[in-house]
Design a protein that fits this description.
This protein is α+β, with helices and mostly antiparallel strands. The chain has helices at 18-27, 38-53, 70-74, 88-94, 97-107, 206-211, 306-309, and strands at residues 29-32, 79-81, 111-119, 128-131, 145-150, 161-163, 217-219, 226-230, 235-237, 248-255, 282-285, 319-323, 329-333. It contains 7 helices and 13 strands. A hairpin with a 5-residue loop joins β12 (319-323) and β13 (329-333).
């Protein structure tokens, strides 16, 4: 009889420090340097180079026409949504164990992987004005979090992220122009906004709220750095005014026990009735009572390797808070589950 080798992690585990945890709660974002290895980032870099050169393509995404100049090819793409559903490389990035390690510490232990975007942002390409990600991706309860992986070095010249520390405590502002149905409309005095994400602060009325903080900070990053940010925090980026690329791979997640009535505009069961689309998204870590999807390309995660990334319990015995010999309250497992009352 030949026994299969036990499933092993593909990367060394990352442990979030207490100070980092506190910084995320205080500021609404957390910058982890060199979280993803250089060779993995280089793979993303080569893939985007090949796409712009017309050497490779993705299902459903048109390639640059053959008669374009090199300069025209480089700005043919701006961003690609949901590449993890058609590209194995993108699925690996979405479910990268070290990224999920950080998420487990910040919003876990149960993590649902929802969305990916591949940003090209070549010289001259636009940024994105002030917005809140939970305005676009609703989760109930609201546990949305983004992970922004730098492919190129990002700085002020080529359009790095700008964050507004402390704004994670703001509600999600609803719009008045029918763009989304999201927003905390049950709050009695909340103002409606319009033109979220528009780069012009005179047009994007969320900017008026964001700029009142007066503490916006640029978040420069090196390839392999990952910036984690909550769904409520105000953030934006500016146009790439340099001669360099500012590519990034961005993923979104939530606690796997949140209901997610969102599938990037794609149909799903219960869409018309406002039902949840959890079954369209991948269980990356932990466990959940809600349905979930399997990774299309077999990347290891809780959905297909629960023995490695599943529920984090030492056993399944019932426990109660009891006093120990020193007078402290501690969790004590029941000796006989059959006699629990």
């Amino acid at each position: 009889m030949i026994l299969a080798d036990p499933v092993q992690r593909s990367h060394e585990a990352y442990q979030v420090r207490v100070e980092d945890y506190k910084a995320f709660r205080r500021d609404g974002f957390l910058h982890i340097k060199s979280l993803v290895d250089a060779d993995e980032v280089a793979e993303l870099e080569r893939f985007t180079d090949d796409m712009m050169a017309g050497k490779t393509s993705m299902p459903g995404i048109p390639a640059p026409p053959a008669d374009l100049t090199e300069a025209e090819r480089r700005v043919f793409y701006e961003r690609i949504h949901m590449p993890h559903r058609s590209l194995e490389l993108a699925e690996r990035c979405l479910l990268h164990p070290r990224i999920i390690d950080v998420l487990e510490a910040l919003i876990g232990p149960d993590i649902l992987a929802l969305q990916t975007m591949l940003f090209f942002k070549q010289p001259g390409q636009a940024g994105q004005g002030f917005h809140q990600d939970s305005y676009y991706i609703p989760t109930q309860p609201d546990t949305l979090i983004g992970a922004w992986l730098a492919i190129d070095a990002a700085d002020e010249d080529n359009g790095c992220l700008w964050m507004t520390p402390g704004s994670q405590h703001e509600p999600i502002y609803p719009d008045c122009d029918g763009v989304t149905q999201q927003g905390d409309t049950i709050l009695g005095d909340i103002a409606s906004i319009k033109a979220a994400s528009h780069p012009d602060v005179e047009v994007n009325t969320l900017a008026r709220i964001a700029l009142e903080y007066g503490n916006e900070v640029k978040v420069t990053a090196e390839p392999g750095d990952v910036i984690f940010f909550g769904g409520h925090v105000f953030h934006r980026s500016h146009q790439n005014d340099s001669g360099r690329s500012r590519r990034a791979f961005v993923s979104h997640y939530c606690n796997a026990r949140s209901r997610v009535p969102w599938n990037h505009g794609l149909p799903y069961d219960g869409d018309e009735a406002g039902g949840a689309a959890n079954q369209e998204h991948i269980l990356a870590r932990g466990a959940t009572h809600l349905p979930y999807a399997q990774p299309k390309f077999g990347t290891l995660c809780a959905a297909n390797a629960p023995e490695l990334y599943g529920q984090r319990f030492d056993d399944h015995r019932t426990k109660s808070m009891m006093g120990d010999d020193n007078g402290f309250m501690v969790l004590v497992p029941h000796e006989d589950v059959d006699h629990d009352h």
